[in-house]
Every structure is written in C-alpha cells, then in structure tokens.
Design brief:
The protein is α/β, with parallel strands linked by helices. It has 15 helices and twelve strands. A seven-stranded mixed sheet has the order 2-8-7-6-5-3-4, sandwiched between helices. Strands 9-12-11 form a three-stranded antiparallel sheet. Helix 10 packs across helix 13. The chain starts with 21 loop residues before the first helix and ends with a helix. It binds pyridoxal-5'-phosphate. Pyridoxal-5'-phosphate (PLP) binds next to helix 4. The site of pyridoxal-5'-phosphate has 13 residues, from helix 4.
C-alpha cells in the first residue's frame, strides 16, 4: 500500500536524522531538572548577559509606529551606517549597496549556503549550526582538522591540502573569530596567510565576525582586509549589543560578489520580505556609535575578559587544558590529559561527559561533539553568561574595576558553577 501523502515517509530526505540543535536540547534537559527541584547552572546557552544599551532601546521606542514593509536589502540609512561602522571600527572598505540586512546572521548564512552551489568547509570545532544548515540543503560538509597545540585554529596548510586534493571545486569556507566554541581569535598575519590560500583556490569565505566587537582587548582583525574580493563579512546586533531576540543580522559583500548578494536578495523577497522595520531603525542608532555605545561595549569586554580569564585559569589548575582566550563568552576545556581518570569513571566521550557533569554538579554545558569534534574526545563548551549583566554594567559605570573581587561579587553563580566543574574534574 502507498504511504499517505500526509505521512512521515514524505519527509525531505535531507532532514532524516537531523535533531534539534544541541543548545536547545541541553536547555530543555536543564529546565526539566529545575522543574524537579534541582539547582542548575546554565552554562549551555550562548546568549549575551547584558541588556541592550538604553539609547538603542529608546530608538526602538521612537520607531515603534513604523509599520511599512522595507526594501528586502534593508533600510538605506542602516546600510550606510553599517558600512561606516565596518570602516571606522574594523577597517573594512565596502560600498553601501552591498550590505544585506537579514532576520539574524544565522538566516543569512543559511541563505548563502542555499544560493552558493559549493561544498562547505568548516574548521573542527565550529559553531553548531553551519553543518546542519548545509545538510538541510543537501551540500557536502567537510570538517577541516585543527588541534589544541594550535589553539584549535585552521592552518593555511590544512586548507591548502584539502583544496589541492580535489582542485577546482566551488567551496565555501566559514571562519568565525573570536570563535564559538573556543573564544580564540586569529591574528592579522594568520588571516593574511589563510587569505592567500583562499585566493589561490578561489574559495568563497564567510567571515563570521558576530563576536568581533567582544574581543576582550578591543582588537580587530578581518580576513576581508587580505581577501576583500572573496569575503563576505557577517555581523549583527545579537552579541555585542545584547539583542539576540531582536533578530537582525548583516552581511557586507564586496562588489565582486554582487551576483551572490542579488541571488540571496531574490530568496529574501520570496521568504522573509524584510526585517522588522522598528528594529532596523533602532539598529541605526546602535551602529552609529558614540560615547554611550563605546562605554557600553568597553564595559562588557572588561567584565567578560575578567570572568573568562578567571574561569580559564581555574579549569587549567584543575587539570583541563584550554586554548588562549581572546574574546566572546565561551571556554572550551579539553579533558584529554585526564583521559585515564575519566575512563575510570566510565566516561569515554563528550556527550557522556556533559551528561554526567549535569547530573553530578548541576552544571549544563555542551559536548565538543556538537561542534564537530570526534565523539570520543573529552571536550566541552561552557558559556560564562549566567550572571546579571545589568548590575555588572551599573557597577562598572559607578567606577568599579573589573577585577577578581568584582566578578565574585557580580557573577557569583558563574563562579560557583566553574568551581563545581573544577572540583569535579580535580576530585
Ligand atoms: C558563531 C555564531 N555565528 C552566528 C550566530 C547567529 O547569530 P544571529 O543571532 O545573528 O543569528 C551565532 C549565535 O549564537 C554564533 O554563535
């Protein structure tokens, strides 16, 4: 008998085996445990702990009555402001026409993968959504190896070797720095070398710079400085502006890739139409900068830097190894040096490790496997964001220094969670 057209056999085969993102799954499991009365430290979800800057909230309030559909590429003054921002703050030279405003950079990355018929290259580890997006579309995914010794960074020779093995294929490389899950960034000279290889093999690059303004030292580096013609720069409001739920992401294209921008624009007209109009007006204020915004971002960096350094050091003392820390709000401990000890506790891979940690310590983290690491490796990601960002920012504004005493006072839950992890590892 033929299956009914309304039954599961008619699921798009690309979706078979895809499960909800690991981030959402750990969040649900944590909520279940909370409902059963347990104290859970949520270090699983990668959301900014800070409020949206008040001047940006005010701009949104002022724009609340704006109701018309906008041009699919976005409000012209916003695209101009973003082009100026990328130039002023990140030294990226682009023309206004080539900015595309989308409902989150995640969606723009997906639409790029849809529009560009090439295989996906992502360093392992990389953010959880790149590879599933490629699978949904039916693209081939290639995880490029990295290692702890090189701070989990993609090396130019690795990219070169991959491209040489099957020359001439269309390829899309997504490079994210400061990186989720590692917190590591690339230096300008490293990006220059990668750019050289990408240019030689004509690899299209999406430079995911969503955390670029949360580099703890305020440094900026971009592969687009070295390979402007082949690089799309991705940014947005979600991380540095604390506005993940506002769903506004931005792509900046070089003129040479106008054909791709045009193709994604067409998909935009047939799908999301345009990003929420009031949000676009408010985003203009965010990207205009000025003392309120600079002060806000600088305070966020100070708090995240101090907390990240403390967490990294505490976990290293407990026996984990961690890469250098440059930015964002993630730590990526690797328990490989404690492999035997973990095996004696019956733990052989990252999924089992994170489940046991949640059970034993109440700390929710994500397994390295969700980021493309081998299942048997003992890596995990933690987001050090479960603290009250509003009061931390108020304390910085009142003149407090973001030192160890500060983070103990203003981020007590995160500190407790890190110590619980460290004690469990060392125990
Ligand atoms: C590396 C990375 N890229 C992109 C995104 C998506 O951000 P957006 O909110 O702009 O869709 C995230 C969000 O977690 C991320 O961590």
């Amino acid at each position: 008998m033929q299956p009914s057209p309304l039954s599961a056999p008619h699921l798009n085969p690309n979706l078979l085996g895809l499960t909800p993102s690991a981030t959402l799954a750990i969040n649900e499991r944590s909520n279940e445990l909370i409902a059963s009365g347990r104290t859970i430290y949520k270090l699983g979800l990668g959301q900014s702990p800070f409020p949206v800057p008040p001047v940006v909230v005010e701009a949104l309030r002022q724009a609340a009555a704006e109701k018309d559909y906008l041009h699919v590429r976005g409000l012209r003054p916003l695209r101009e402001t973003v082009t100026e921002f990328l130039h002023r703050r990140h030294g990226i030279e682009r023309q206004r026409r080539q900015v595309l405003v989308g409902p989150g950079s995640k969606e723009l990355i997906f639409l790029t993968q849809l529009a560009y018929a090439g295989e996906l290259l992502v360093p392992s580890p990389s953010w959880v959504s790149y590879a599933p997006q490629a699978r949904i579309i039916g693209r081939r995914v290639n995880w490029l190896p990295t290692d702890f010794a090189h701070d989990w960074k993609l090396l130019p020779e690795t990219l070169d070797a991959h491209c040489r093995a099957t020359p001439g294929l269309p390829r899309l490389l997504i490079l994210n720095y400061p990186g989720n899950p590692t917190g590591v960034s690339y230096r300008e000279d490293e990006l220059a070398e990668l750019a050289g290889v990408a240019r030689r093999h004509q690899v299209l690059v999406v430079s995911d710079e969503i955390y670029a303004d949360l580099d703890h030292s305020g440094r900026t580096a971009s592969i687009s400085h070295h390979y402007p013609e082949g690089t799309i720069v991705s940014t947005g409001l979600s991380k540095w502006c604390g506005a993940g739920g506002w769903r506004l992401g931005l792509f900046s294209f070089p003129e040479e890739l106008e054909w791709l921008c045009a193709a994604i624009t067409v998909i935009g007209t047939e799908t999301f139409t345009s990003v929420s109009t009031p949000i676009q007006y408010a985003a203009i204020r965010a990207f205009q900068g000025g003392p309120e915004i600079e002060g806000y971002v600088s305070a966020c960096r100070k708090v995240l830097g101090a907390l990240g350094r403390y967490g990294r050091q505490t976990l290293i003392q407990a026996g984990c190894r961690l890469p250098r820390l440059d930015g964002a709000f993630y730590l990526f401990p690797d328990l490989t040096p404690l492999q035997e000890k973990m095996a004696s506790r019956g733990l052989k891979g990252s999924v089992a490790l994170t489940e046991r940690l949640l059970q034993d310590t109440g700390v929710a983290t994500l397994p390295g496997e969700a980021f493309g690491r081998p299942a048997g490796e003992l890596t995990l990601r933690l987001s050090y964001v479960n603290f009250n960002g509003t009061s931390a920012l108020a304390a910085i504004a009142a003149g407090e220094t973001a030192d160890q005493e500060f983070i103990h006072r203003h981020c007590p839950e995160t500190i407790t969670a890190i110590h619980r992890l460290a004690d469990w590892v060392a125990g």
